[in-house]
Amino acid sequence: MKTWKFPFLLVVLSSVIGAVAQSGNAQPAQPTGPASVSDIANAEIGIIERELVPAAEAMPEDKYNFAPTAGEFKGVRTFAQQVKHVATTNYAFWSAVLGEKPAVDVSNENGPDSIKTKADIVKFLKDSFALGHRAAKSLTSANMGERVESEFGKQPRLFLTTFTVAHCFDHYGQMVEYLRMNGIIPPASRPQK
Amino acid sequence: MKHLRTIFLLLVLCLTVGAVAQPPQASGSAPAAQQPAQPAPTVASVVDRQISTIEKQFVDLAEAMPEDKFNFTPESLNIKGSEYKTVRTFAFEVKHVATANYFFWSSVTGDKLPEGIKGPNGPDDLKSKAEIIKFLKDSFALGHKAAASLTTENIVEMLPFRQNKAPRLQLVTSPVPHAFDHYGQLVEYLRMNGIVPPASRGN
User: How many folded domains does chain B comprise?
Assistant: First the structure.
């Protein structure tokens, strides 16, 4: 069972933000410098990246086309489609933050058909997060409220940067259930060693 | 990108709610309504919009589960080969999200935590569906208060949070992805019970 996961996230965040001196021992990390909006957004992206990528890696390739059936699951995404959808959305929104044309075709919400194998899909996901870090680093107090063109009209940069993280977590939660249905405890939920 | 369009429709609705009340237009004969000038987004309005989005989706989802299923956990289905030992019940998931909301947002607003919170799943004495949903709704009300406190100048201010410190912006925004994590799980809990989540139903 997950316990106090949310404070843990904050500890992680606090340790990421502000040029923390890492001593390598068990001492709690203390933030040492002022955070910026860029740091904060970048840390949020790092958190979901560290949960989602291991979850995608934890599903065996022969289960990538799994979708639940016991219940009302008509038309739901397969595991592969969940991962590809997240990556596609990441590309669409974070490219918009940067004012760039997405490097992949985002016209299909589940991503390009040509991305099929587990290795290709996980790479697609990882590359989308690399774009996210670049988008986060472009944020400043001065430009975060600026509306930029996106797939869904003009949206503030801060919104596009951070709401994409929330979108990832929505699908991460679904993937957690897909994994458990297949007897796999999501890596982030396994007992800490 | 139908799913994303749904999310953005919700966002537009969220923006509409709370805007200056517009008198209803007479149907058919009125000239095209003037588009109100979009106010410049502020950090407070951007974050508040995100909170409204998950609030709408999460509360609707909680309300969609029948009360007699509030103690449902997938473990009870005995799905062959599954691993659901000790996962939260539907009720605990909802209470956990509300409790996390309270922890984060009260650290920004200075409000006291509700009575009876002893752990991550909220007060033991909240048992009925109505009580749990009220607890959830009240937690989001605190979120709007926390979002309203944000300014460009104070977002990086470090505030105490449990045994640590975190930037004000982080404390206000963290509950949104956290709630979406559990929302995604509960989507599956609903579907396992034959219920399509309200946000996923066709228009």
Answer: 1
Domain that residue B121 falls in: 41-200
Q: Which residue has the tokens 């989005």?
A: B53
Closest CA to A108 of A93, A89, A123, A122: A89
Domain boundaries, chain A: 1-35, 36-189
Mean pLDDT by 10 residues, chain B (203 residues): 50 37 32 58 95 98 98 95 95 98 97 92 95 98 98 94 91 96 98 97 75
Is B195 a domain residue? yes
Q: Residues 66-125, chain A: which have Cβ within 8 Å of B? A: 68, 70-73, 76, 85, 88-89, 92, 106, 109
Domain-located, residue B4? no
At residue A122, what is the residue type?
V
Q: What does the DSSP assignment read for A92-148?
A: HHHHHHHT---SS--SSTT--TT--SHHHHHHHHHHHHHHHHHHHHT--TTTTT-EE
B40 contact A CB<8A: yes
Q: Is residue B96 in some structural domain?
A: yes
| CATH number of the domain encompassing residue B165 | 1.20.120.450
ipTM comes to 0.86
Q: Evaluate whether residue B53 is within a structural domain.
A: yes
- For A138-172, the pLDDT digits (tens) are 999 999 999 999 987 899 999 999 999 999 999 99
CATH class of A36-189: mainly alpha
Secondary structure of residue B47 in the 3-state scheme: helix
What whole-number distance in Å separates Cα of residue B7 and Cα of residue A82?
16
